[in-house]
């Protein structure tokens, strides 16, 4: 039993939030992020599954806001037709992988019809061999939603009762425990999906009102798929975009604190190198920095010719981060509505292929990790310019009121540096780390769940780094008063001050950092 969490408005940590979120089912009006945030949000509109139109926003709504889920009745027509095709093929005596054969390297073993149910049941039992910490509730809900959506495409050859039971569990907030480790991402996320299926057949750790008996192909159709890694990826990319927007807000505040110039964000510069996300980044910074009294105070007779790269090149760097996130988002969005089991049913044909291979999602997750590591490194460099008396254009050393007697933000920057190093180690791609499995039948695998774990930790590190930058930037603005920053930066400063008072003497900053990091995840500073 985890220890209780006591709220006093000052000492809540991310670990506390994770503990509460994972002990609680995702309730109406409560959102739990992959990295642990718990936020009150409006009720989401219902999501209807048809196998073709699910979006990342839908996944977030169901996973974190308990949006109601339904199945489009017209989609069930195709589901029934694909099931009839499987049954007809079996009746004709055709040899179909996983229907009347063993699995993987044992595919040469023919299974008699009277053992079809046992074959599917054994598959689920044997493959429910995951280990490690359980996935958080939002990740399990995302996986359940995606699996239901794939099954209603009409290419899996299952009965409607399978996706219908998943939807019933989602709406009833019945969430099996799914270990986070044990999947290599091909043939799909076998272990995580098997733990989910175990509950559906009445053998899991949660009670299902109407457990099912799996018929021919249905166990294989359920566990062959990329829905664990894709569910995590959908939540991660949503969080990453929130952090991307917040990083611009932090950059604007840091620029104001060191009295930097917004001239490098002129649209003409970025139109001359028309990478779309670079242009959007520059436009966002221009909006954030408009109407600044601080800027006007040093527009004339400033001996500095240009700022350092960490300030001046923010659109080029964060623009590239945006391009990476956009690439990852495109792959993830496609995978949400992709048929990823094997074999697949097309009309009367049952074809074996390899759509279960998670390489696209593993690559997307690695790109998210690399992109966020870049974002984190840039934020730490801006932070250094705010706290370093040799670089901060006149701010007190380490933002302390009495430098020497006090250390101010000295060790907060050290913490950021440590987190950047952690990110850089974790940014090594998982998607190139193939280790053959199943007697070398699965000889090239993508390691998507490893990529998801790494990306999640990088995200949490980057959020804390940006939180430290926000705190330091806000402190820097205190020393420039009575000059006022840009209107948007002033609103940001006020929002930070609601979470953390100005530093007037040395104090432990851990609680301040954690509070601001939690609010970053909630999107508090992203607008």
Q: How would you explain this protein's 3D organization?
A:
The chain has 527 residues and is mostly helical. It is built from 19 helices and 8 strands. The strands form 4 sheets. Strands 1-2 form a two-stranded antiparallel sheet. The longest helix has 31 residues, at 227-257. The radius of gyration is 26 Å and the shape is elongated.
What kind of sheet is the major sheet? 2 strands, antiparallel
Mean pLDDT: 92
Instruction: Tell me the overall shape.
Output: elongated
Strand order of the largest sheet: 1-2
SSE ordering: HEEEHEHHEHHEHHHHHHHHEEHHHHH
CATH class descriptor name of the largest domain: Mainly Alpha
Work out the helicity level: 40-55%
Beta-strand proportion: under 5%
What is the structure about, briefly put?
This protein has 527 residues and is mainly alpha-helical.
What is the secondary structure topology, with strand pairs?
Elements (H helix, E strand, L loop, with lengths): L13 H10 L6 E3 L5 E3 L6 E3 L6 H10 L3 E3 L3 H17 L24 H12 L3 E4 L2 H15 L9 H11 L7 E3 L8 H11 L17 H6 L3 H31 L9 H5 L4 H13 L4 H5 L11 H4 L1 H22 L8 E3 L2 E3 L7 H29 L22 H17 L21 H31 L8 H13 L10 H12 L6
Parallel strand pairs: 3-4
Antiparallel strand pairs: 1-2, 5-6, 7-8
Helix pairs in contact: 2-5, 2-9, 4-7, 5-6, 5-9, 9-11, 9-14, 9-15, 9-17, 9-18, 11-14, 14-15, 15-16, 15-17, 16-17, 17-18, 17-19
